[in-house]
Amino acid sequence: MARIYEFQSKKLLKEAGIRIPEGGVASSPEEARSIAAKIGKPVVLKIQVWVTGRAGLGGIKFAETPQEAEEKAGSLLGMQVKNFIVEKILVEEKLDIAAEYFAGLIIDDAGKCPVLIFSSAGGTGIEEIARKNPEKISRISIDVGKGLKEYEVRNMIRKTGISGKLLTQLSRILTRLYKTAHTYDARSAEMNPLVLTKDGIVYAADCHFTVDDYAVFRHPELGIDIAREFDRPPTELERIAYQVEEKDYRGTFYFLQMEENISAEDKAIGFNGAGGGGSMMSMDAVLSWGFKLANYCDTSGNPAASKVYRAAKVILSQPNIKGYFASGSGVASQEQFHSARGLVKAFLEEKINIPAVIRLGGNFEEKAVEILEKYLKDIPGKIEGYGRADSPEFCARRMEELIVENNYASHAVAPIKEPEIPPEQYVFSTVTGKVWIDHKKCLNCLEKGCIKSCSAGILKLEDGKPVLAVLEEEAKKGKCTECLACEVFCRFHAEDAVFIDLPIPGLKEYRDKIRGKD
Length: 518
Hints:
Layout: E1 2-3, H1 6-15, E2 23-26, H2 29-39, E3 43-47, E4 60-63, H3 66-76, E5 80-81, E6 84-85, E7 89-93, E8 97-108, E9 113-119, H4 126-132, E10 137-141, H5 150-158, H6 164-183, E11 186-197, E12 202-204, E13 208-211, H7 236-246, E14 254-257, E15 268-272, H8 276-287, E16 292-293, E17 295-298, H9 305-315, E18 323-327, E19 332-335, H10 336-350, E20 356-359, E21 362-363, H11 365-375, E22 383-386, H12 392-405, E23 426-429, E24 434-437, H13 439-442, H14 449-453, E25 459-462, E26 465-468, H15 472-479, H16 485-493, E27 498-501, H17 507-517
Parallel strand pairs: 15-16, 15-18, 18-20, 19-21, 20-22
Antiparallel strand pairs: 1-13, 2-7, 3-4, 3-7, 5-6, 8-9, 8-11, 9-10, 11-12, 11-13, 14-17, 23-24, 24-27, 25-26
Helix pairs in contact: 2-3, 5-6, 7-9, 8-12, 9-10, 10-11
């Protein structure tokens, strides 16, 4: 689930006709003063972070005057709150509260429907309210095909003891909350507290939305950078990695940076898992040897070799890691030689000087291990491939032994150089890159192994030179599966005439920046 901030959530409510306190977002003390002056009454200042219990963390303050608002904002902006550095605060009018309520909508995965919840007691977690005062909570399951009618909401709220004009006002608000959540594909939407002021008006004093990961692309207006559930703003490398996943739905590439500042003294490794359960077991194994994980990465679901290649390039953009450890499920259904070729291309380009232990258990694991051993034997770092018969614990021990043999050498992030492509190359586009073939070199090739190794069958010989056997538009739409077999074969068994360019937007600039810090 992708989170949005309170001020963004309230904007959606306001557009839906739900009252929110007057206010604005400030990024500086001066802006806070200006907003408070415009409001012209006492204000509340709230840090904008994805954590609960902000009051207990010192993240909510009150101010009587614009000058005090400026002073309080100065103490809030820049403060460290768990994994956040506060960059924005919400400055709002201080409400004269008579009563507090809770209203929320969640997706019930078991029931396969949204559930609207209301509590006539608010201000604390709904779980605590349910435990202490279950009679104050009412809920309704919603048929998304039929929608939600206001009379259904009135009947639900009435069960908590509320009646009269307040019942009418609350039912209208909750109906609009559901419509807003439905419009923006929210997995959850919460107003807590929903408050009644002493003059009889109901406001959403606080509000939080989370949006379904797979629906984020439909809502660019929300400004969500990454469709992931983070408890902090994404790092620059996570943003770069997400662009790969966002534009390529073949399998999974999930990347989470667990340590952003790794020192040469850290016993840190880059981690590449495949599948949740197997990855968890593998992480436990390496952690038992005292390793620190620089990242968590998952390449599962039968990803293209090009996707595994990009994952490896991102993982190897982390300086000072001591090794590369890949291990997931031992019975994966994906064809492991695709992952092996992706790693081969990445490791060759990086010329890594650190060891890598690669456990590729699953379909065609023997072929995958053979690919690793055959094509990576001459790079500086020692690479070992294993299959399902080799346990994560065994592989973790090998990681430890190889790092010791390598004298705990740290990975040095290499610059990314633009490929030098000679003129007059034969070129065609793929789903995420381009294939370049030097036909001059092809004339000297007797093997023509690029044709044989292309399992998709999209290449043919024409006057002794490999060309597309399908329309270029078909290759670009997916006929070329980006298995990388033609490049690997040609590099080692023929004339090194094939190069597949798989760009990763932003990675070159990121590496240039971090290398400049060294």
